What we know:
Layout: H1 3-39, H2 42-68, H3 83-111, H4 120-147, H5 150-179, H6 184-211, H7 217-228, E1 235-243, E2 249-258, H8 263-281, E3 284-293, H9 298-312, E4 317-326, E5 331-338, H10 345-359, E6 364-370
Parallel strand pairs: 2-3, 5-6
Antiparallel strand pairs: 1-2, 4-5
Helix pairs in contact: 1-2, 1-4, 2-3, 2-5, 3-5, 3-6, 4-5, 5-6
Amino acid sequence: MTQENMVREREQVIIRTSIIGILANVFLAGFKAGVGILSSSIAVILDAVNNLSDALSSVITIIGTRLAGKKPDKKHPLGYGRMEYLSAMIVAALVLYAGITSLVESVKKIIHPEMPDYSAVSLVIIASAVVVKLILGQYVKRTGERVHSSSLVASGSDARFDAILSLSVLLCAVLYLTTHVSLEAYVGVVIAGFIIKAGVEMLMETLDDLLGRRADRDYVSAIQKTIAENPHVLGVYDMILHSYGPEKNVASLHVEVDRGMTAEEIDDMERDITVRVFRKHGVLVGGVSIYAVNQSDDEVGQLRRAVLDTVLRHEGVLQMHGFRADPQKKTAQMDLILDYSMDDRQAVYERICRELKETFPQYTFHVVMDLDI
Length: 373
């Protein structure tokens, strides 16, 4: 299956799932609104409004998916994939709005209480809604995770919260019918708090996508293994995945190669890497930078091992790579990756540079503090 067909199939799955969500939520909203009006239950009415907001979320997901699926053009040569992040943010904002609205209305009912009037039919409808929303939420969220759609994942999570909301309303109704004690307004406040929390978390999740989050380690490792299949590649480092929407990534990276390779051999290697990665992972390799390594010089090899031992004695050093030394000019250069958890990475870096100068005074070191990506 080609990359274009995979993208098209993904779009169809998202739209189909969203349409199922719209139909289910409109159906539930109609029934709940009727029950809420007849029973004078603020909790049931808010539950119905929440279902309508879910239907609207699904509509936004469809619009966002359609826009994200537009073909690249002169203005946006890498496509419109990031539109999905914006639609997910709108869905999160709707969830947040529904939570705040529910909180306000519940507080009003605490201040000015009204006694509900439930019937057996209304209880059956609310109980059915719990089951439907649980199944729908699980289905939508799993589908979203499978096709990497943050909008569907957000909608699925919201549906599961709705099921909890409906279950709370049902329990309040049963309690009222058995004890004549109405707690639905108070329960509404608690549920509203959970909905607000979910909305904030969804919003932060989407912001992470927009800001650029760390790529999944397993995914990066799989791409690196594919690159390492080329016989000329001695090591793969500093790979950055630039996301232009779900399943739309551009990679840049460094590879270590023997310094004796010709420009033509390097060109062949880079073309091979680009084809391998795109065919297997659907990732476009935008740039391959080269670290030239001297494998045949024993003096350089001994120096590299000694330098590595010195460097790794320092806490927080994750990796040393790109090492190259010139025994004639007495120069050496390398990249160091320091853990972000260190309180003062700059101080560790400067301490390592001083120790290298003291331990190997005959050499001049050029050390780059690289990014842990």
